[in-house]
Specification:
This protein is of the alpha+beta class and 357 residues long. The protein has 15 helices and seven strands. Strands 1-2-4-3 form a four-stranded antiparallel β-sheet, with helices on one face. A hairpin with a 4-residue loop joins strand 5 and strand 6. The longest helix has 18 residues. It is globular, with a radius of gyration of 24 Å. It comes from Chryseobacterium manosquense. InterPro entries: CB, DNA_brk_join_enz, Integrase-like_cat_sf, Integrase_catalytic, Integrase_recombinase_N, Integrase_SAM-like_N, Tyrosine_recombinase_XerCD. Keywords: DNA integration, DNA recombination, DNA-binding.
């Protein structure tokens, strides 16, 4: 990716003054140094006599290195007897082509069961004991319905996909999911949030999120090459479900994007972190949280609320729901239809029959 595969670079993972880094080794060459520095914020280590960058997901993606699935802390708590099965589980997820986020989530959830198993082999777990485990998750751990569903999905994958035991879950009921309406903001609140964000880069992140209805993970993954200013379109590459789609670039954003580019000079990603590479999801979430506080808005809503607001406000202006479905990248129209419940509640012009008596 980014031409590094065709260059004479080699990469290794290590630490430098207590921080995790990726070492970049190559024969001294002005062209190679120029290329590395144009694509990343690489630094030179005078002690190691090598170039290095922070060990981040975006740098691993740029260099074509495998992504870290689970941390050492997770592995340390799994008994040695079950470690081979945990590795087998992760390998099966990778072979199935699951996204990095799904692999991490499933791995974390499956590890929770392995912690409880301790030194007992996971392959010997019976349906009855598995049922008792999920009761434990419900009664003792007090997990929510969605958390239990997530854990069940991971464990079900292991027994049905890895071990091919299709009957393990026949007698284990799933908790009924709550129907929760999306948490959204009205237009006045969004204006206040953006106005309260003084940093131009941070304000632009929020505008892109709301203006195109993107997930925060999609916002930070945007590359300069994804933006087609001639057609006023933006390519969303490998969004949720590993699907590409096209978003509409708001006309009001184009001059701001051009000014932002001249001031910040991002290299690959539209929004880049201090160490180069893509801006982190956590940082974007922190930007939104700080803006909410400064704007004095007390609603319990995260940055994903901007995406919900985008969909709701489009519906309120009469945009066809199937067009909104495509813009959001929903596989099923049923997912998009949840916003009709929100718009019905938010339309102040709806009058009670009592008022016409």
């Amino acid at each position: 990716m980014n031409d590094f595969a065709d260059k004479r670079y080699s990469f290794s993972v290590g630490t430098h003054y207590g921080s995790k880094v990726i070492w970049v080794s190559f024969d001294k060459d002005k062209e190679l140094i120029s290329h590395l520095r144009s694509q990343t914020k690489a630094r030179w280590s005078s002690t190691q006599k090598k170039w290095y960058v922070a060990d981040t997901r975006s740098h691993r993606a740029i260099f074509g290195l495998p992504q870290k699935i689970t941390g050492e802390a997770v592995l340390a708590k799994i008994h040695v007897i079950n470690l081979p099965e945990f590795t087998r589980f992760q390998e099966h997820l990778l072979l199935k082509g699951y996204s990095a986020n799904t692999v991490r989530t499933y791995s974390t959830e499956f590890a929770q069961l392995l912690y409880v198993m301790k030194g007992n082999p996971i392959q010997e777990l019976t349906t009855e004991r598995l049922r008792s485990y999920f009761l434990y998750c419900h009664e003792k751990l007090k997990l929510s319905e969605s958390e239990i569903h997530s854990r069940m999905n991971a464990v079900k994958f292991y027994f049905e996909q890895v071990l091919h035991r299709q009957k393990m879950f026949f007698d284990i009921p799933r908790p009924k999911k709550k129907l929760l309406l999306p948490k959204m903001l009205n237009k006045a609140e969004i204006k206040k949030i953006i106005a309260a964000t003084e940093n131009p880069k941070h304000a632009l992140i929020l505008k892109v999120c709301y203006g195109m209805g993107l997930r925060v993970s999609e916002v930070v993954a945007l590359k300069l090459s994804d933006i087609d200013s001639a057609e006023m379109l933006v390519r969303i590459e490998q969004g949720k479900g590993k699907k590409d789609r096209i978003a509409v670039l708001p006309e009001s954003l184009l001059p701001e994007l051009r000014e932002y580019y001249l001031n910040y000079r991002p290299k690959i990603y539209l929004f880049e972190g201090q160490e180069g590479g893509a801006y982190s999801v956590r940082s974007a979430q922190a930007v939104f949280k700080k803006a909410m506080e400064k704007a004095g808005i007390k609603k319990k809503v995260g940055i994903h609320g901007l995406r919900h607001s985008f969909a709701t406000h489009l519906l309120e202006t009469g945009t066809d729901i199937r067009f909104i479905q495509e813009l959001l990248g929903h596989h099923s129209i049923k997912t998009t239809q949840i916003y009709t419940h929100v718009t019905d509640l938010s339309k102040s012009k709806i009058k009670s029959p009592l008022d016409s008596l």
